[in-house]
Design goal:
Blueprint lengths: L1 E3 L7 E7 L3 E8 L9 E3 L2 E8 L2 E4 L3 E4 L4 E4 L6 E4 L4 E8 L1 H6 L4 H10 L3 H13 L5 H18 L7 H12 L7 H8 L3 H12 L3 H16 L7 H7 L5 H12 L5 H7 L2
Parallel strand pairs: 1-4
Antiparallel strand pairs: 2-3, 3-10, 5-8, 5-10, 6-7, 6-9
Length: 267
């Protein structure tokens, strides 16, 4: 088994930008050109499947479809076992300096990747920034990542009202439903004015913005499924029409739907 040093992958690196604290990269796995040996990385990292997909094994085997995000602890063994077609990934590698400088536990990052609605949007922004890297790109990406981890950790602090956690669960489970403040009030037993006033303090955005993030998050997971047309994808993601979906998607991620796919396939 081989340990991979900072900045290296078993896949081919297309773009990469590095600081002492993190490395953001876009990589590709080719069906006939990757080495599927068991390995580990010296640094913790996470990887987003932008297009394609593969099969992987840690303790058990699992598929990594488009839109999926996988977290790897430093030194965690894993192995790519199957790559049916070219698979494009966006990666964040985090050094010990990242965790020590910001007093962040790796478990906090892993939890944020599972829970925060902005994570997939972040990875599309990483892909966009890596196309035109300038001196400010990595700072922006680092800030976005820190904000996501901070937002998720805030909801776990002692003293957070129970209704905040309840609303988070309701919105996650019923993201496709049109929920009003009055309905949330009945479900939580909290006055609508209280929810409206304090929601931004706990979720760093308004209720409407949070719901749109959840919808876009779901759309990113579905984007590479071939049986979805643009209109079908919009409806499946909870939008009334395709034009509204395109506007919100571009505003949230900085890219129009499908743009990244065209960019990737040119590589």
């Amino acid at each position: 088994m081989e340990g991979l040093i900072k900045g290296t992958h078993i896949s081919t690196v297309i773009h990469s930008v590095e600081t002492p604290q993190l490395i953001a990269s876009c990589t590709i796995l080719h069906p006939a050109q990757y080495n599927g040996y068991e390995h580990y990385h010296n640094n913790a990292h996470f990887s987003f499947v932008l297009y394609g997909g593969c099969r992987e094994k840690k303790q058990t085997s699992y598929n990594r479809p488009p839109g999926s995000i996988t977290w790897y602890e430093a030194g965690e063994r894993h192995q790519i076992s199957k790559v049916p077609a070219p698979s494009y990934h966006v990666n964040f590698e985090l050094t010990d300096q990242f965790f020590s400088n910001y007093d962040i536990n790796p478990a906090s990052v892993a939890r944020a990747l599972q829970q925060h609605p902005d994570v997939r949007c972040l990875m599309l922004k990483v892909f966009r920034e890596l196309q035109l890297v300038d001196s400010d790109a990595i700072i922006s990406l680092q800030q976005l990542l820190l904000n996501i981890v901070s937002d998720t950790s805030r909801l776990l602090l002692p003293g957070i009202p129970a209704w905040v956690k309840t609303i988070k669960e309701i919105l996650r489970d019923r993201w496709h439903d049109t929920l009003t403040l009055e309905e949330l009030s009945v479900l939580t037993g909290v006055h609508p004015v209280t929810i409206s006033k304090y929601f931004p303090s706990y979720f760093s955005c308004t209720l409407g913005e949070y719901r749109r993030k959840l919808k876009i998050n779901g759309a990113i997971e579905r984007m590479n499924q071939p049986f979805y047309t643009g209109t079908q994808l919009a409806y499946a993601s909870g939008f009334a029409d395709e034009s509204h979906f395109i506007r919100v998607f571009k505003k949230t991620t900085g890219l129009p739907p499908g743009h990244f796919k065209k960019e990737v396939l040119l590589r």
